[in-house]
Specification:
The chain has 26 helices and 16 strands. It is α/β, with parallel strands linked by helices and about 625 residues long. It binds iron/sulfur cluster and Broken Fe4S4 cluster.
Length: about 625
């Protein structure tokens, strides 16, 4: 495959050319080396859950139809799906736990490096949870909030607080199905229990546990991550900044922060302004310190501070290949194990910071939340010391960069609408906006980078569907200029008029992967305002280039919350026609929504528009 066929992004194409010329292996080369992928794996028909196996089911020939224990294709495929959901939910929710712990530390040691930047939001949460606030300090109130949060990780059976944000009819549906999450950690543990050899074998029962676990992510761990990150680091407001590899500087110390958690990246942004560090950078011959983001930790600081974003998932290796990155600081999730190897071809230092994610070949500087600012400065110092090692002769920073407008938290959206959802509801009722679609998720080298994200978003806005985005999808749109108010020119007449009146783009960046919880909050608020269920809304979701288990958890909580969700490729379930039918058809009668699978982004848009029009008709719009 030619380099320009691997990505639609000109900056990525240029770095792929450089990688090829210099013999540096990238994710695309490794994908090629894996061909053909194992057919049993693709269909979800291999099992390694016990030592009588590994077993595989032969769906077409005369080979075995049962594993050694007797598990059939339905059992094997559904157990795998449930484990994927559990892993994705665990990743989001454990991230959420770290935020809760940082939040609690800020409450306990009010003078630490973490402060409550949004006390108003903290008080709103306290009121939502009926926590008394009169005559109490903000720290006392925060401790009570953190008690509730921590309790929800291993709680004793009460409802998750945030599920009460969903319409009553949806809450009642979850209760009647027996899928109310009983604790964020508990659901993940139960998934692992039920999928070991000889426990749950019924694909419907297993899928219901997958649903319950995904809800504990979307309305639990992810929502805690979002809400308390907003309290700690500030609720995003409208910000402007720059995106793509062109944000790297040829004269400054470039530091790329990559991963997911804002606890370190947010502090890094402030630490980089330290006059002593700036002085040191100048002494080393640099003009300054340039902090850039990558993937979702990048999205966190983009949303709150307008920090430049160097790229999305498939650009992590390419950023290093520019030859201009002094340090890539990583925390957790979506970090390719290949980074230290690529960095070895240059002067770049990969600095790992989490005890949960150690990378052979990287420099490990454990991030100490109690001394967050000190650790951040120490890491920045390592990058500055590395600047003189940059070989300017090998530096090749693509000039491609694009502006963005972001920061669309629920609060920002409400603010832009004048404090109430009414103008948005009126626009939907009048048909100027036909509906809303959330485009989320990753890149995947199996798909031309950003192609599906951009083609889908363009087709939707052209048809007057407002698009909200998170994660790497949002970064793709930033690079393509869809996050600029001028992108309204690409929208249909109705949507364009609304965007121009409000001064916002037709594609709204709502944050990182855990911030899909913001999409749930908006969906619930609209449904509540209209007095209907989320599944009644002209609303849909898509993950058109997904790769992570986290995307499976997100898709499952979207569908379980009543949101029709389109994927470009299925998770490994096709080996079980029963499970496939349940996910793509049967779920409609259970949770009021299904998954659809369609590779072509224009056809994906067609499916979404058809769904939106069907819902509009049913609502009498
Ligand atoms: Fe094989 Fe059953 Fe063991 Fe899986 S659990 S490896 S299907 S014997
Ligand atoms: S970073 S989960 S590649 S969206 Fe959240 Fe991007 Fe997917 Fe990671």
């Amino acid at each position: 495959m030619k380099n320009h066929e691997k990505s639609i992004d000109p900056a990525s194409q240029k770095m792929l050319d450089k990688a090829y010329a210099e013999g540096i292996q990238t994710v695309w080369d490794r994908l090629e080396a894996q061909q053909p992928h194992c057919g049993f794996g693709e269909l979800g028909l291999c099992c390694r859950h016990c030592n009588m196996g590994p077993c595989r089911i032969d769906p077409f020939g005369n080979g075995p139809k049962l594993g050694v224990c007797g598990a059939n294709a339905d059992t094997i495929a559904s157990r795998q799906l449930v484990r994927m959901i559990a892993a994705g939910a665990a990743a989001h929710s454990d991230h959420g736990r770290d935020i809760v712990l940082a939040f609690r530390a800020a409450a306990e040691h009010g003078e630490g490096d973490y402060k409550f930047k949004d006390e108003k939001k903290l008080l709103a949460l306290a009121s939502e949870f009926n926590i008394p606030t009169e005559g109490r300090t903000i720290q006392e109130i925060a401790l009570d909030v953190s008690d509730i949060a921590l309790d929800e990780y291993g709680m004793r059976g009460q409802k998750l607080q945030f599920t009460k944000r969903a319409p009553k009819v949806r809450q009642d549906l979850w209760t009647s199905l027996g899928v109310d999450p009983r604790g964020i950690d508990r659901e993940v543990v139960e998934c692992m229990h039920r999928t070991t050899m000889g426990v749950d074998t019924d694909y419907v029962n297993l899928t219901l546990q997958g649903i319950r676990t995904s809800l504990s992510d979307g309305w639990g761990g992810s929502m805690w991550a979002t809400e308390l990150s907003d309290v700690l680091f500030g609720t995003p407001e409208v910000v402007k900044g720059w995106s793509n590899l062109g944000v790297l500087s040829d004269k400054e110390v470039n530091i790329v922060v990559h991963g997911h958690e804002p606890t370190l990246s947010d502090i890094i942004v402030f630490a980089a302004r330290d006059p002593e560090l700036l002085k040191k950078a100048k002494e080393k011959g640099a003009e300054g310190i340039n902090i850039c983001g990558m993937c979702c930790t990048g999205n966190e600081i983009l949303m709150r501070h307008g920090v430049p974003i160097a790229g999305n998932f498939l650009q992590q290796e390419l950023a290093i290949i520019t030859g201009a990155v002094e340090a890539m600081i990583v925390d957790v999730q979506c970090i390719m194990p290949s980074l230290p190897t690529v960095a070895n071809c240059f002067h770049t230092k990969v600095i790992s910071t989490s005890p949960k994610a150690v990378f052979p070949g990287a420099t490990h500087v454990p991030f100490d939340e109690k001394n967050a600012m000190e650790t951040a400065k120490q890491i920045i110092s390592i990058a500055i010391d590395n600047y003189p090692n940059r070989n300017q002769g090998r530096v090749n920073i693509p000039s491609d960069r694009m502006g963005y407008m972001a920061g669309f938290s629920v609060e920002t959206i409400l603010g832009a609408l004048g404090g109430t959802l009414d103008p948005l509801l009126d626009a939907i009722k009048s048909g100027s906006i036909r509906g809303i679609a959330g485009i989320v998720g990753c890149n995947n080298p199996k798909v031309r980078q950003d192609h599906n994200h951009i083609a889908l978003a363009k087709e939707l806005i052209k048809n007057n569907v407002l698009v909200v985005e998170t994660g790497c999808a949002a970064i793709a749109s930033a690079k393509a200029g869809l996050l600029l108010p001028e992108a309204a020119d690409m929208a249909g007449e109705g949507l364009a008029a609304v965007c121009r009146a409000l001064g916002v783009p037709p594609v709204l960046h709502m944050g990182s992967c855990v911030d899909n919880s913001r999409v749930l909050v908006v969906a619930a608020a609209i449904a509540n305002a209209l007095g209907v269920d989320i599944s009644d809304l002209p609303l849909a979701a898509a993950a058109p280039e997904w790769m992570s288990e986290k995307a499976v958890a997100i898709g499952t909580y979207a569908v379980s919350s009543g949101i029709y969700t389109v994927l470009n490729s299925p998770p490994p379930v096709l080996g079980s026609s029963n499970l496939t039918n349940l996910l793509t058809a049967g779920a409609e009668g259970v949770v009021g929504a299904v998954f659809a699978v369609e590779a072509d982004p224009v056809k994906q848009a067609g499916l979404i528009i058809e769904h939106i029009e069907k819902k509009r008709t049913a609502l009498g719009l």
